[in-house]
Amino acid sequence: MIIDVIIDIFPKKEVLNPETEAIKKTLSNLGYKNIDELILSKQIKLSFKNLNEEDCLYQSKLMCNQILVNTNIQDYEISLLKKD
Which of 73, 57, 82, 62 is CA-nearest to residue 9? Predict the structure, then answer.
């Protein structure tokens, strides 16, 4: 069995992101005034084979905390998708 892991990485709410603010301001200037929240994020997809869900989640969390995510300024969410 193959399990796909999707990791969404985004800035912590308390961290000011200049790129996000610039995009939000530009959208407002273009007439899109009803945007309440805009979050820029990145997504990483991993595919694991021959591991159970628990091990996939464990390894993904380790990777996030070791190298994929700067946990001082970023949060992340992990989703698992099973494939046959």
Answer: 73
Q: Which CATH class is domain 2-15+41-83?
A: alpha beta
pLDDT tens by residue, 38-82: 989 999 999 999 999 999 999 999 999 999 999 999 999 999 987
| Pair 10, 73: CB distance under 8 Å | no
Strand partners, 43: 8
Q: Are 77 and 8 in contact (CB under 8 A)?
A: yes
Q: Break the chain into its structural domains and give their ranges.
A: 2-15+41-83
Q: Supply the DSSP symbol for 68.
A: I
For every residue of 10-46, DSSP letters joined together read: EE-TTS--HHHHHHHHHHHHTT----------EEEEE
